[in-house]
Amino acid sequence: MEPMSNSPTPRQILDTLLPPLRLAAAYSKNIQPVIAACPEKTDQQNHFGAALSDADLSIQTLVEVALLGAYPRIRFYGEEYEKTANTKYFRSIELGPDGDYLVTLDPIDGTRFYLDGHDNYQIIVGVLNQDEYEAVLAISPVQDCYYYALRGVGTFSGPLDASLDQCQKLQIENPKPRIYLGWGLSDQIPNVGPAYQINDLKTAYTAEQFAPNINAILKGEFAGAILESGKFIDGAALAFLAQEAGCLLTGLDGLPLPPLHTSHNYQRPGLILAASAEVHRDLLQAVQKYQLVSAG
Fold it and tell me: At which of 169, 195, 214 does a domain end?
């Protein structure tokens, strides 16, 4: 799909944001040991979504400055749009027509991980078209790496100091027989069959006990995932990265996901993500057995 003539391409947007995102990554890593939590968000249903740190607000401001400096007419939706001073300067915070891209940001995905001192938090940028993601870039500051994907091109990974062109194409091979369940799904899906071990964030994670997040699927730590919904800024973006790396991605009904513009509240409905057709079949059977209903 060709972008509007006055709109940057998804690749140009990633190229523009990579340098400031490197600075944001260094900043987040350097202050993690001493950061103090801001008052927690009150409109979230779990303590992972509720955590808010100084880093969230600072990184969002940095990305906003970079975008407004390079593309003053761009659409932008950041997680902290209600708290930042820059939202009013963007043309819109909503999806646009075909080719008029919306850039999204989760400044600290996994803020609770971050505040508890773990290393698997991320900074996630998305470039969304009317129907589907055009690009996603996810940085893991402490792990000194990042992943990016372009629609129909694939997913690539490399160290933080690598350019986009220097990154290597990612292929997920021989994933571990573990399945990631989104928050609270342990109450609805007690198991997905004897071939798999379940990683349920709600019960597995504590401040002292590390538990991998869905981003670990890119490293082969999971063979699949079931999410009750996928927010544009994080879960759905990471699913796009995995899909471009070769994973199967569908709704909880096993059908292709509907276009982004049909979604509500900046989130897609429930997702099944699988490294192979066999894993997808098993996860779909589990969803049907326990009559899981999408939260999206």
Answer: 169
